[in-house]
Amino acid sequence: MATAMDWLPWSLLLFSLMCETSAFYVPGVAPINFHQNDPVEIKAVKLTSSRTQLPYEYYSLPFCQPSKITYKAENLGEVLRGDRIVNTPFQVLMNSEKKCEVLCSQSNRDSDDKKKEKDVQFEHGYRLGFTDVNKIYLHNHLSFILYYHREDMEEDQEHTYRVVRFEVIPQSIRLEDLKADEKSSCTLPEGTNSSPQEIDPTKENQLYFTYSVHWEESDIKWASRWDTYLTMSDVQIHWFSIINSVVVVFFLSGILSMIIIRTLRKDIANYNKEDDIEDTMEESGWKLVHGDVFRPPQYPMILSSQLGSGIQLFCMILIVIFVAMLGMLSPSSRGALMTTACFLFMFMGVFGGFSAGRLYRTLKGHRWKKGAFCTATLYPGVVFGICFVLNCFIWGKHSSGAVPFPTMVALLCMWFGISLPLVYLGYYFGFRKQPYDNPVRTNQIPRQIPEQRWYMNRFVGILMAGILPFGAMFIELFFIFSAIWENQFYYLFGFLFLVFIILVVSCSQISIVMVYFQLCAEDYRWWWRNFLVSGGSAFYVLVYAIFYFVNKLDIVEFIPSLLYFGYTALMVLSFWLLTGTIGFYAAYMFVRKIYAAVKID
């Protein structure tokens, strides 16, 4: 992976494509031992732009090409990320310096316009050029700085080297100052005695692409080669996020303790008194609905299906974050995180189906086959449908981010060949298992629900319930959005795991508080309401996504905007399912617990 270290305000108008950076990397996940003057292969990944959000293949622009272009076989995660890894003509030898080499010469005529400024930071790739007072300049010289670690060998053996860091410094140097010729030789100007290479869109420009190679010995060992990226983020901000989240959890715990220790315990004690029952029943309302609180809701099949998909998501996210925190999904394994997430979601279908089947039977459902099919297809079908529509637009732009047709067929085969049978299997055993044991019987005639206050409105409940869980994780959400939409690094999965645990706790606590208030208002229709309200933080994620789009990104075209909001909609939907499921099961356990603690005549 290359890094950009020339941080001038930039813009590139090149060959009618709006690409900002080009990413290189030195292949090899396992350590590769090099000897002196061994060839080191440098491959290109893709062209990216935070303004268009559309990745392109490296040779979509007329860069210098090798005699034979060879593409690497990507895994599923790399394909979905839009990576198209290809060889390059750069000739690099281990620990061998190159002052200035001509790669090739090119000419161009057309270009487009865009501009942007960035702060100093490491990035995936290097910037292709910049603008200054409406003039366009091209980075036509790349300085490769490669750091190697010398491995200790026995005295009679030759030293071996391992590449532990890779940087690229792009420079714009005028052709006259390069003193380049077509015999692959050139001379770099000394100091600052050079002018940048300007591109005139109105006429043909003769360009020479050159590069230099510089090797430096490093004390960094192979196992610690990613520490540079891990230290780029301000760890104090992440600790502030954790402290902020803990404060939110303690605040919710205080409210919950007040309800359970003071109010709820007092209610249960009064309800269990044998004398003066009629007076005590008027003091609080949650016992009055004991005959209706476990009445099955409308559309139990859809509710259980959504909760089953939520369990699937929860298991997948928990395992992925935990494994990544342990370092098993190394960033050197390109696409491993997304590949693991896709396969885990498929295999977690057995747990989603089991939980959905058992809940569906608890809600007096009988059509288990239809329920299993709904669980296996409802949420994945929405995701696939949105992705397919967006993929059609990406295809129209000839972007490498478009999922190839064979990959799409493979995903469909995984869905119907792995996930759907596992959901059916889990649903079958879940439906056969004994339903959840509710502590009170349900009356035959539903109780009339009194008129509710304005603050018991469902949308008001979503706003109230969502703000605190969102406040516990919004700082970390900024880094996640930056990693997704601005091509930044995110490898601090330890912090992400802590935030995820805090999110689970806060969603559970706020869900219990909200269902208690609802039952006290003698409204026993808590099943769907609690599921919707517990996912209220997803509404704030949507609001934050809109804020991020307006204030942080420079996307102006229709298709990039459509991609942003399309993928954001999938994120919000998934987050709502996740948090709604967490809150639902916490509230369900709470309701069963409190009604099991009182004497029902």
TrEMBL record:
<feature type="transmembrane region" description="Helical">
    <location>
        <begin position="491"/>
        <end position="519"/>
    </location>
</feature>
<dbReference type="GO" id="GO:0016020">
    <property type="term" value="C:membrane"/>
</dbReference>
<feature type="transmembrane region" description="Helical">
    <location>
        <begin position="459"/>
        <end position="485"/>
    </location>
</feature>
<comment type="similarity">
    <text>Belongs to the nonaspanin (TM9SF) (TC 9.A.2) family.</text>
</comment>
<feature type="transmembrane region" description="Helical">
    <location>
        <begin position="336"/>
        <end position="360"/>
    </location>
</feature>
<feature type="transmembrane region" description="Helical">
    <location>
        <begin position="562"/>
        <end position="591"/>
    </location>
</feature>
<keyword id="KW-0812">Transmembrane</keyword>
<protein>
    <recommendedName>
        <fullName>Transmembrane 9 superfamily member</fullName>
    </recommendedName>
</protein>
<dbReference type="InterPro" id="IPR004240">
    <property type="entry name" value="EMP70"/>
</dbReference>
<keyword id="KW-0472">Membrane</keyword>
<dbReference type="Pfam" id="PF02990">
    <property type="entry name" value="EMP70"/>
</dbReference>
<keyword id="KW-1133">Transmembrane helix</keyword>
<feature type="transmembrane region" description="Helical">
    <location>
        <begin position="372"/>
        <end position="396"/>
    </location>
</feature>
<feature type="transmembrane region" description="Helical">
    <location>
        <begin position="408"/>
        <end position="431"/>
    </location>
</feature>
<feature type="transmembrane region" description="Helical">
    <location>
        <begin position="239"/>
        <end position="261"/>
    </location>
</feature>
<keyword id="KW-0333">Golgi apparatus</keyword>
<feature type="signal peptide">
    <location>
        <begin position="1"/>
        <end position="23"/>
    </location>
</feature>
<dbReference type="GO" id="GO:0005794">
    <property type="term" value="C:Golgi apparatus"/>
</dbReference>
<feature type="transmembrane region" description="Helical">
    <location>
        <begin position="531"/>
        <end position="550"/>
    </location>
</feature>
<feature type="transmembrane region" description="Helical">
    <location>
        <begin position="311"/>
        <end position="330"/>
    </location>
</feature>
<keyword id="KW-0732">Signal</keyword>
